[in-house]
Amino acid sequence: MSSADETRNTSAKRDLDEQALFYHRHPKPGKLGVHATKPLGNQRDLALAYSPGVAAPCLAIADDPSVAADYTSRSNLVAVVSNGSAVLGLGNIGPLASKPVMEGKAVLFKKFADIDVFDIEIDATSIDRMVDVVSALEPTFGGINLEDIKAPECFEVEEQLRAKMGIPVFHDDQHGTAIIVSAAVRNALLLAGKRIEDVRIVTSGAGAAALACLNLLVSLGAKVENIICTDKEGVVYEGREKGMDRWMAVYAKNTEARTLADVIAGADIFLGLSAGGVLKPELLESMAEKPLIMALANPTPEIMPDLARAVRKDAMICTGRSDFPNQVNNVLCFPYIFRGALDCSATSINEEMKIAAVDAIAALAREEVSEVAAKAYGSETPVFGPEYLIPSPFDPRLILKIAPAVARAAETTGVALRPIADWDAYLDRLNRFVYRSGLVMKPIFAFARNSEKRVIFSDGEDERVLRAAQVLLEDKVCRPILIGRPSVIETRLQRFGLRIRPHQDFEVVNPEDDPRYRDYVDHYFSKVGRRGVNPDTARALVRTNTTVIGAVSVSRGDADILICGLAGRFSRQIRDIRQIIGVAPGVGRLSGLSLLISQNATTFFADTYVQDSPTAENLAEIAQLSARMIEHFRIKPRAALLSHSNFGTADTADARKLRAALALVREQMPDLEIDGEMHGDTALSRELRQRVMPNSTLTEDANLLLFPTLDAANITMNVVKTMTDALHVGPILLGTAKPAHILTPSVTSRGVVNMAAIAVAEALQRDEEAKG
Ligand SMILES: NC(=O)C1=CN([C@@H]2O[C@H](COP(=O)(O)OP(=O)(O)OC[C@H]3O[C@@H](n4cnc5c(N)ncnc54)[C@H](OP(=O)(O)O)[C@@H]3O)[C@@H](O)[C@H]2O)C=CC1
Ligand SMILES: CC(=O)C(=O)O
Ligand SMILES: [Mg+2]
């Protein structure tokens, strides 16, 4: 039985096949759709979108073709083009059968780099026909990604298209693969202590991917004389006639060797871009020390990693698959290299842009991994080394590093028609795409930067807090203090590959052994002694309850800010904070504010976590505390009191409560833009407000939504969050005597960082207000 048959017959494979078929079929066939980006809701929209209005952009483009980038989606639209002649390692299965792969590439472009794609499967086998069809598509697209077209035709097709077209033409199987292979090779050689000029490379495969990888490795310093190619016919030797072409002839050698087995001895790198199972384990024995084995055929590699590892313990092993470490796959490159090229309207993707991408990817693997990347790898956090030569495809930093590097190289080499004019704004845009919290959080981070505020974290042993602490220290946002056992913190930092160290970089409060223990117990007892807590319980809690320890620390002035809530019940922690830190002078009750950041809006919701049925007075206070907090974000608050009643259409108790709250706010904080009571859609649509309340004092759509009850606020916030795939920042606890915030157990490390920065900004603002 062949290895392909073996693979096909495993039950795991059958399961995966069934799931894949279901995934592709339900709920709608395929993986892609087209959606309109402009409203088409009425006669006027129709007149603008189509005839007669559409004539205006048509004529503008006829006058000046470059404005097509302003009036159409072309500049963000890429064609993924295939004729289906070398689909993955499945061979020549034709254009129609290649469509799931091309739709898949389209999804990856969108997901990883926000690039729109039409997949174009063409029924064309001759070079001339492929070139004719693709070059005729230039008016439609900002770039062409050729995919799964077999060698040697793909070389000729790409060469001719590059010469004919004024937009980037990039054969992903060649150059995307070459870029990521080169990054992995660079890092592997660094670990092995070898120089690229000296290493011997043997390939299995002399097709599109293998030859492009070799060409790029040669531009990076590898020597042609140190490279031997093999393919189905065996060694590529001088004088060979069968299956030769001018591209592989570059690597032909004057040798009597004829098979892979004849040439692999002493090789430092095996580069497999051919077919599953072709590398037999025993062949690895004769390879050089610390060999790099790149078995990249998809879906079945040239050798499975466990078989390779059994023979060579010292090997570094890469495959194209996501279920093993070191996934060398062009998905790490193509979305981002196109992002960079499109963003500066590059006319091509040249050698310098490719090398910029190699440098960026290789350098990224040597940095500490992000939390998202760690998750993509499973439970073990990867640290740069033989099992982590290149970043995970889910590493959010890929776009931030590769796209700007590519755009800069395009500019330097003169192929950028519209060089990036404002690099800060460009990086912000990429950041916003990645984290979505980037822009709205920016003023907060700017304000908090270089603060000396001491933020104490109750859940100091939690991975998310450890990762957040490193970011906060690097970004100089605060001085973290972690509550936890030092040995546990130390071990986890090492396990997660984090650089910061306890005591040296940040303070640790050990609940099991802190010299201030007695003082903390006395302080705690002074706060809760007459609230049903006896001295024994106080002693036990100050040893075991880290929220209590953190709150006492802030109350005593040993820290400035408390962040807790990654574990434990919200209701208990708010009780501890209320009792120990207390409520700010002049504030009646604590309340909770949530921020949702979606693709289209930044909106605050209150009270989402604390007061279940606020009175009119409570609501007026929530509105004012929320508005002051929103100002820290350098956003002008615009509040709407939301109800089932729209400006007096109903006279229920809740509607009356909201009207009373409105009157109170207008009296107590006349500068705050607020109106109500109103429907949720009225708050978010100027058109509706003009229809039902033309003299509404809300001059723009509301960004602070206030609700009559906790249920209404919390339910709405969670529904909107889920339906719009929004990022939740918060809850931000309002009204405490000193900054203290209770996060939710589902918070990410980025959420911890965001909340710490908000709390630092809040603390600095309080200092300024105290100074007067
Ligand atoms: N991990 C990644 O990112 C990528 C992986 N790949 C994988 O690389 C492989 C090749 O793709 P690509 O270069 O586009 O395809 P091509 O058709 O252009 O090249 C295939 C090459 O592999 C050789 N080959 C095929 N079967 C064998 C075999 N049994 N023994 C030795 N050599 C063999 C072919 O030799 P001959 O010409 O004699 O038939 C040819 O040289 C595929 O499995 C693909 O999935 C490709 C791109 C990216
Ligand atoms: C990854 C890819 O492009 C291939 O295997 O063809
Ligand atoms: Mg491919």
UniProtKB/TrEMBL annotation:
Domain spans labelled Malic enzyme N-terminal: 29-162
UniProt GO molecular function: acyltransferase activity; malate dehydrogenase (decarboxylating) (NADP+) activity; metal ion binding; NAD binding
EC number(s) stated in the UniProt entry for this protein: 1.1.1.40
GO BP of this protein: malate metabolic process
Keyword annotations: Metal-binding, Multifunctional enzyme, NADP, Oxidoreductase
Family membership noted in the UniProt record: In the C-terminal section; belongs to the phosphate acetyltransferase and butyryltransferase family. In the N-terminal section; belongs to the malic enzymes family.
This protein's name: Malate dehydrogenase (Oxaloacetate-decarboxylating)(NADP+)
